[in-house]
Request: fold
Amino acid sequence: MKNFTSIKDVTDLIQLVNQAKAIKLDPFADKSLAKNKTLGLLFFNPSLRTRLSTQKAATNLGMNVMVMNLNNDGWTIEMEDGAIMNQGSQEHIKEAAGVISQYCDIIGIRSFASLKDKKQDYNETLLNKFIKNATVPVFSLESATLHPLQSFADLLTIEEHKQKARPKVVLTWAPHPKALPQAVANSFVEWMKEAEVELVIANPENFDLADEFTEGVEICHNQDEALKDADFVYAKNWSSFTDYGKIGQVQDSWTITKDKMALTNEAKFMHCLPVRRNVVVTDEVIDSENSLVLQQANNRTFAAQTVLLNLIKHEEKA
Ligand code: SN0
Reply:
């Protein structure tokens, strides 16, 4: 694994999941593996789970960790090649990525979608420019279109809690007061397509995800119908892809309630967090025994540790 920005960087998914399970059983087995190596975690956006779980994962491998919130604490970064930098931006990504590569052996980067420029977001402009100008492995802490560490932890959680060989997994859109990226949903679909599950996506009309992700997956515009016999209900809001970044009308009827869960096969409830309680999901559902949100969050550590381990091993071989 040279970089980790999507499932495309995974050569053997079953092996990766088994590796994560083994790490979870014995997280300190490699506690000196990366001694004296430095991980840099760069955030253009807020974070709780990603920041803490990745830092914990790195510490379990003996790494030193540096965390920087680039938006608040760094210079304003210029992305354009050939830019005449006489305006607001202060440091070019060429120097920024080059310099950080001097200090770090691996770099993690979080850069959410702008939700304004679809082309720039879906080309992963910032992440790709950063990779191009860095000289060390780079992994995603949620990019404009994907959140692979989250999806890896989600898959691990489903593997641990499934009660049949091929469970039905429903990814359902849920309401939200703010425009959110499609990254978590896109990424979840990418990983579920490769997993032993029956995947159904439920979302209102005009909220279909990009074809490049949903190709071959059943999309249902009727949530109740989709939830029938579900073993896992993964709720997530995303803003419109077609009417890019728009939230449209309030769709309260899509909130995951006890009545909605009653349509399922006693499904487990999942969400990546942070979650808007009583908007996306009611208290009784997220507080119920069927809620896996804390297990998902816990698995973030083991997903990150597995990815770091593979990035380090790849470097050692190089
Ligand atoms: C992010 C998202 O991509 O949806 C991160 C999820 C892991 N979520 C948010 O930005 C939620 C912010 C809010 O206002 O609730």
Remarks:
- The pocket of N-(3-carboxypropanoyl)-L-norvaline is lined by residues 178, 180-181, 183-184, 272, 274, 276 (CB under 6 Å).
- Residues 147 and 184 are 5 Å apart (CA to CA).
- DSSP finds 13 helices and eleven strands in the chain.
